[in-house]
Each structure stands twice: as structure tokens, then as C-alpha cells.
Amino acid sequence: MARRAEPPDGGWGWMVVLSAFFQSALVFGVLRSFGVFFVEFVAAFEEQAARVSWIVSIGIAVQQFGSPVGSALSTKFGPRPVVMTGGILAALGMLLASFATSLTHLYLSIGLLSGCGWALTFAPTMACVSCYFSRRRSLATGLALTGVGLSSFAFSPLFQWLLSYYAWRGALILVSALSLHLVACGALLRPLFLADDTAVGGPGAQLNSLLHHGPFLRYTVALTLINTGYFIPYIHLVAHLQDLGWDPLPAAFLLSVAAISDLVGRVASGWLGDAVPGPVARLLMLWNTLTGVFLALFPVAQSSTALVALAVAYGFTSGALTPVVFSVLPELVGTGRIYCGLGLLQMIESLGGLLGAPLSGYLRDVTGNYTASFVVAGAFLLAGSGVLITLPHFFSCFSATISRPQDLVTEPLETKVPLPNEKQED
Length: 426
Hints:
The chain is mainly alpha-helical. Helix content is 75%, strand content 1%.
């Protein structure tokens, strides 16, 4: 384990960013392109949209709810073996799903088993990126998460092509092979030990301080609301377009158009997050509000031109909000608590990921179209923006001190745990 007094803002950190790039592609790139399988599962198992939606929702919820386990294991053993184990589980879940004969099998294989694998990979990798960067943290996070945009652009038409030639069972076997590359991503991670890591206590002390930390708790509420509506287009947009008379391949291609815009948004947001003074939460609120508005407008767009324009706008803002989500957290809790903080955050916001897609599918079954589904999803994001404005220093004047992550660790988290070789003062 490398030991540093402060984040190096480079060096091996760029290899960690490379690992996070491919890891984000193989986790959320797959999840965001899984809407291509949605129509196939509905037809193959003759089930309602709401029940099929639970496949991805369970996977997202398990990934997020199990993140504290991945974080705790990474604290004890380092992120490398944990992420490599997660890659094996993610691939195994997809492989077993290819033999499914009912939705229950898909719930257990993709939702539970692959979800456990994703839980062991995503949070430890992104926490490792945050440990390696301080001044360029938003940019590094943005570059790492561009893997989601690139893979969404590639995976949506690729999965549709695989379905056309190999059917859904053969396609899942090939997705399993792709997921196995998460093992190589984990091998690139080198844990970094920072000077303040010894002063924040063990996992129990960190968890207790976080649960009594008002800004952190409000942030988790905001992200839970955002998470409820964020994934809806990637699950139901293809089905919505087919309801409008689109063929499956052009509908999948529209997701690729959004993915290209998503990629640009992530890089631009990462650069702005480091360049613009003031708390990064302001940028997060801006991007999230625009995303919610564009999401609610999807049912209004009917022509191909309007849908493409809306997909580009939505892709940019939804991609832009992602890097700053991970940049705000170290500003609230500090880098010493990033593993525990990110794991706990992912666990709490899993409630939104679990309920979002089934709620959207239920509204589709009740109303006969996806209008209410997209409007309600946008409303959840706008509600999240309302909570974000309550974070510390949100309305403060722009200043250099506010933009430093170390200065935003609030008082309840400043309790130091004395080292064994320190003498107590009388």
C-alpha cells in the first residue's frame, strides 16, 4: 500500500482512472443498455412490464445496498482483491441468466448475483479515484465515468445486434464474457494510505459520525430522489419509442445518440467542477434540474427531430451531473472517510433504484403509455434539486476557500481518534 501525506493528483492515479473508466463501462454501461433486453424478456416470458422491470431494479438496488460491504472489505483487504472478486460474480450472474426459464431465475442471477458483483466493484474503485486526486478530483472522476457514455453508445446497438443473431440467451453469454474483464480492472488498483486516514477511526466510528452528520444525511436523501428517476430512460425509452412506431434498431440507436452527448457532458462537467469557484453542489443542482426538465419532456416530443434533440440535451445534462455527484461527497466528509461514506451513500440511495423502474412500469401498465412514467421520473429529480440547496455554503459567495474539499468537513466529523503512540494530555 502506497503511503502519502496528501493525494498525489496524478502518477499512478491515472492508471486508477483508467481502471475506473473500464469498470464504469462494464457496470453502468451494461445496466444503461439493458433496456434492449427488456422487450425480449416481456415477449419470452409473457409478463407485464412492471414485473420485467424488477430485473434491473434489483440489480441496481443490490449494487447500491451492498456497497458498504465492498467498502468495508476494501478498508480491510484493499480494493484490488475485492474488485477482482466482484468481477467474477458479475460475469457468473450473466452466465447463469442465459439458462433462465422464468423471471425468478433472472431476478436471482442478474439482479442478485451480478448485483453483488457490481457492489464489490463500483464503490471501491470510485473511492480509490477520490483518494488519488484533490485539486483535479472532478476532472479525474469525469474522465473515469466517461466509460459509461462510451459503452452506452457501443453497447445499445451491439446488444441489439447480438439479440438479432444469437437471441437473448446467446447475447447474455457474451455479456458475461465482457463482464469478466472487471477482474483486470481490479488488478490495476493500488491502494493509497493518506496521512489523515489514521485520524478518523475505524469503520464503526466513521459510520456513527456519518449517521449524525446532517449535511451528509440530506445529501443521501437528495441522491435517493434523483436515483428514483435517473435510470428510467435507459430502461423504458426503447419500449416508449416502439410504442410510437419506431423499429427496435433505430430506437436503440437513439440511446447511443444520448450516450455520445452523455460522454461530452461528463468531461465538460469534470472540467467545470475544478475550474468554477464555490461548492460543487451548485453545479450538481444545475445539471440535475435540467435533467429532470428534459426527462419530463420526453412524452411531449413526437417527431424524430424533436426526440433526437431531446435525447442530446438529456444525455448531456444527465452525464454532466454524474462526476459532480462523487466530487461533492469528499467536500462533505473528507477523503479519510470516503470509503465508508460512499458505501453508506450507495446503500441508502438504493431505495430509489429499487422502486424507480417498477413504479415506471406500473404507471405504463395502468395508463397504457409511458407519459406518466417520464413525468413522475422528472419530478423525482426536481425534488432532489430542492434538497441539494440545503447543503452547507450553497448560497455563499464564491471564494477560493470554499472550493477546497478539506475546508468543508463539518464539525461533527472533526473528532480525532488518538493514535496508540500518542500521549494523552492531562
